[in-house]
């Protein structure tokens, strides 16, 4: 049995309170009653396009979307459900007269993805949870009630009057089920709302064509037919609405819409148009004074009346033309006919006739159609008197303008706007529906149900062979090459695949990809998604594995280039087999292969500093690989490090703990030591109480063991860890010395990433240590040139250079460098580094004399670190923020953040301990507590003197000088300020030294 995955709507209708019938009626009579019930219900359901699958006891089940999908299947089902009430009322009238019997009804309707078959062999047509939920809704409904599930509600809410029911607890569902009571269906309303009243975006050229066609019709007193062609949602109706509004007062406008299904719908647009022109009496009065007026009225009203006795088509066409000519004699007439891709051939013939034969009357026929029309009526746009407008997608600028308009109702952040633009690709309806879905809290990576219904119905109309090729292309990706589709289409002849690809391109589902003869792309990403969604999972697994095998052979000799792509396809092949179960050894090998490839891709992402990608790839690899896999054990500590850099400290802690346990269990001493070092790095961020002694202990324990193992990379990491103790203690010269040792080992290991990272740390030591600023700048520039290809390290050195340039008074250049670093960190997703480096950019603003800007930058960094759960750097940042708040005159806030810093900082963190004391001492002095202020300021000076952190030494002296000045001790204050100036001059911090000199001159 052929199967497919599709979104359908399932309806269950059951006789309510049927037990008393069995007690009252003879079994034969009861059988006749139930047979009549089934017949009436089935007649209604089938008339609306439902397939009556089976009878279950007293219930009937129908599926809308089998065998053919329609974009309005859910609305058809809801209309049918509402009509069941009327059909039952008629049956009850009969049964009451004949048997004194009355039947009640309850109905459940639900939509969702099912696996559908063709019904051969007596097998069920559909299986899946939506069927179960529809049945449970029917069982929960009260007599006379129609309950809709959430899936259906989303697809019909614009056309239905709904009342929410209390959440239902139903059999077979672990959680509550949402339900709505159907009160009624709004006649003629579309399933989803369209913003036809919103300002028109773009379309100036297309609107001009319509204006010109209208002007020609008026000037020449003739008929012009313009057909606007474009896919669903592209803006055809909105364009027509704009024209109608613009000619209001200058022309009479009427409209009609073709229907996709129903009885007597051939001339349905004519029914609506004639209704808008007047009633039966009104039409006869309008034609009373014209030649053959009575015959014209008879033919037209016969076609649109209840009996629809149109007579010969030639006479009807003549009569409709005469009616429109008469209406247009007094003022021009604009007739809008929507959805003519659903029009019967007879109606299309009528439109062509009107365009060619209407005369002495200004008539503009505006027809709206999807491209399907041009497949059925290929010469339509080349017919004389017919002008065609093909609507293209909105440009990026126009899409932005539409999002601006939508954003007034549904506020969207930059990320959401970008996601919508990328997915919608210029289709206004897609933009609106995706914005609405996100505003309701829907998943960002899914297709809105309304759009999925449109696309799925379009694809379902394709011939089976074209659909098969499109599905294989969907597995290959949004962009794909012909050879990949050929590989996945072993059951199809090569020539047939080529022919089907060309046919799909003609239907505007695919397009040739410029630059490659054999390359194609989906016209729209959502088309690809809809095609993929229709593939059964078992077939998806086979196709993904086939594509991965093909890609491996195709890229042989280019190891690593496509690891991520090939790994993804093996991963999908495994995941679908996992969902379908049970797993066999072949499936496990798919997971192994995928995990290995994704792990390699993750390692490369880590090396190029693309941490978000590294986290994604490594995490997926780890979940795929077996616990004992050596590749998995290697990937765990790398994932932990990547998580730290992206600011996800909670996950990093868990991953590093698992990594350490795994390495120990495997007896891999080298990996265990490296992981231990990595975890200690992590603890310096999240657990500042961890002492410098512990850092030194672990580093010095690991170094000789790693030497025995000849692990140069491990030694580089160990010496780097050892240098972290010097950072905490403010010993920058010692930090540089340890980093030089680390760099030596990293070079021996030929690990480019480790080399680059250590170089960035060395640059920072040059800024904070005793190296004079000119020399530090020269060396930093050399270091930056040596890592030209490493964006993260260049960003770090740019931040360091920003501080050094600010010391020389080059504030504009310093700000440019600081911004360069910020941008790179944001592009790479390095949240922690971006936040931590706010200390550097804040110091630039302080040196530039803009403490308010410094406060903004430092507060942003503090808040970001707080979100991450980081504590080590945050304690230091809080201290520097307190210092900036003092400079900005916000003394109470400064005291608050100095308290925060004190609470988080360890005793061993000399720099943080000195800065918060200096800041609080200054703030207390300014608020009147001179004694405590002086005590803290002197403690800060003492702590700073135990370091070689030049700026810290001078800064604490200035802090103490300020406290003393507040107490009137000018001579002591001046002497301390002079000491600080000398230190700044020795370092080459011209900006700070000059500010002190200016202060001295002012005194």
Walk me through the structure:
The chain has 1003 residues and is α/β, with parallel strands linked by helices. The protein folds into 6 domains: 183 residues, Nucleotide cyclase, GGDEF domain (Alpha-Beta Plaits, 2-Layer Sandwich), CATH 3.30.70; 186 residues, Rossmann fold, CATH 3.40.50; 51 residues; 89 residues, Arc Repressor Mutant, subunit A, CATH 1.10.10.10; 131 residues, Serine Threonine Protein Phosphatase 5, Tetratricopeptide repeat (Alpha Horseshoe); 130 residues, Tetratricopeptide repeat domain (Serine Threonine Protein Phosphatase 5, Tetratricopeptide repeat), CATH 1.25.40.10. The chain contains 45 helices and 16 strands. Strands 1, 2, 3, 4, 5, 6, 7 and 8 form an 8-stranded mixed β-sheet that branches. A 5-stranded parallel β-sheet has the order 10-11-12-9-13, with helices on both faces. A 3-stranded antiparallel β-sheet has the order 14-16-15. Strand 11, helix 12 and strand 12 form a beta-alpha-beta unit. Helix 8 packs across helix 10 and helix 37 runs parallel beside helix 39. The longest helix is centred in the N-terminal third of the chain and has 27 residues. It starts with a strand and ends with a helix.
